[in-house]
Amino acid sequence: MTAKITIGPLLFHWPAEKRRDFYFQIADNPHVDTVYLGEVICSKRTPFFIADIDVARQRLEDAGKTVVFSTLSEVTERRDQKDVEKICDIKNNFVEANDSSALLQLAGRSHYIGQLMNVYNENTMEHLHENGAVHFCVPSELPSDALVVLGDKAKELDAALEVQVFGRTSLALSARCYHARAHNRIKANCRFVCGEDHDGMNLTTLSGDTFLTVNGIQTLSYHYLNLIGELKDLQNMGVTHFRLSPHTTDMDVVIQAFHDVLFDKATITEARDCLEGLDIEAPFVNGFFHGQPGLDYVL
Amino acid sequence: MSDENMIAPELVCPAGTPAALKVAVEAGADAVYCGFQNATNARNFPGLNFTRDELESSVDFAHQQNAKVLLAVNTFPAAGNFDLWKTAVDDAVDLGIDAIIVADIGVAAYAAEKYPEQRLHLSVQAGASSPEAIRYYCQEFNIKRVVLPRILTVEEIAAIHRDIPCEIEAFVFGNIGMMAEGRCSLTNYVTGVSTNMDGVCSPASHVRYEEDDAGQLFSKLGEQTIDCFSCQENAGYPTICKGRYTCDAHEDPYYAFEEPVSLNLSSLLPDLIRAGVTSLKIEGRQRGKAYVGAVIRAYRQAIDDIMAGREPDLTSLIDLTEGHRETQGAFKTKAWR
User: Fold this and answer.
1) Pairwise CA distance, residues B151 & B131, whole Å
2) From CA A152, how far away is CA B275, in angstroms rounded?
3) How close are the terminal C-alpha atoms of chain B, in Å?
4) Above 90 in pLDDT, residue B317?
5) Which of A119, A182, A295 lies closest to B189 in CB terms?
6) Are the beta carbons of B168 and B134 closer than 8 angstroms?
7) Which of A146, B157, B176, B240 could form a disulfide with B263 if both were Cys (CB 3.0 to 4.6 A apart)?
8) d(CA A21, CA A56)
9) CB-based contact B257 A176, cutoff 8 Å
10) Over the stretch A143-175, which tens digit does the pLDDT of each residue have?
11) Residue A76's closest chain B neighbor by CA?
């Protein structure tokens, strides 16, 4: 299968105009195959996203992109579940489940399994496949030897296998909003303070090292995952889709770099240099893939 | 305090070692939970857990005392390593374990298909927090009980109870992780050892304490500083979600996630029982026998008091909480969020 570049769900609470412009920009990029739309972190943000989601979907589909709708990643309140159900009700597009709360409703129809669900092994993949899953984006912490086995299983099931290759990666979810907490608020009266940090809010240790980034209830890596040097290995393992997670940096440059390596238009060194030239505040990492601490960078 | 809506809950207690299991049963546990000495359970620490032989004799002992034994097989096998989890399930069935606590869908599928008669509980590590999620696991694997994530209010637990076909187990005392269980790779990010795949959170092998020239003590996990203590303070164990950090909104160090506190729901026990919680769970397989015994005796007495209509007294438990500080976490009010 030809390698496909995907744009993962936007994790951050961007202003409507910025979000719309971003998806229009993605629509115009010829190298993107699939775009995931939907609020996956916080149901309080959902009304903002939903308001113009159809405009984004239409523009992306007119440009020939596959649009997949992503569900919330954590359900604590009834309104969270209602959001999950509304997304699962969409019948004209594939739906990506990010929490087991979506699985009953998606049973029996072809659907995607998102990165925030725990697909760690071939047996889980097989069971979810029997429920209708045809596409799996697996957790970032899986090392390469596990990906090899999952690649074989995906091929056997004729399912697609996706891995995040760029961007801050999800490390934890909580019921508590840490953005609100940082501003001495609670989730109920957060006044959407998360919207101030378009790539998340960085946490620095008492020794002055920054290693985590908060995004509402989510804790992300401060460092940016960058598997540009591992793309060929991933392809050989049977990974079919390569996920770039949206950030404020110039995503067209990011897309071009990954496209160029996947399709042999540039060397890894050339592409890596392009990425290192971007205005990204944090270093790159790839440790998880190599079975090392996630914040290591193995070259 | 007692009323007809209250059914006596089961007290489920931690057993990190065969000796702790004996203490727990003798202190009044209705059931104990434990794990094998490997990555198949979420408390895979050196010096903890059971060999197959130890578990066999412990099951015999517990059953003679009319206590149940639950086995946690509640981590997520990385692809290619699944056999170890199969063996754990096979051994559990062979040893007459009363229920296997599972989290991974693959492990649950294996157990349910091979041993349809074996009772299965859904681990907190599965993170099933809605009726829809729980019903999925019940339908697929005939789950008989769900251990709820520590992210719900009592009111929400009552609503879930009305909407699911299985029993509910809820944590009432012990360590409180801030992250949704089964969905945290913070430890792996700084140590290379995974909570989900290896069953370890903040492994002691990666913990260090470093003193600077001014006599301040820095607690570290991997290369990252988690907290700092003056010589008057007791240095806490470095767990990322209980560390102190700075950010743009907080130039002074603050507990970005949670302060080092323990969960203690003793004052909410009647509400939890009324909400339909079948089983009250005490955290702490990594704790010593004295701690386990004291907590269990206090909770045993409290449950018996509540069921007999007496006012329970759990004031002694504060001494057993982390830093002598306790919280009701998510359970009491949504304001915690």
Assistant:
1) 14
2) 46
3) 30
4) no
5) A295
6) no
7) B176
8) 9
9) yes
10) 999 999 999 999 999 999 999 999 999 999 998
11) B129
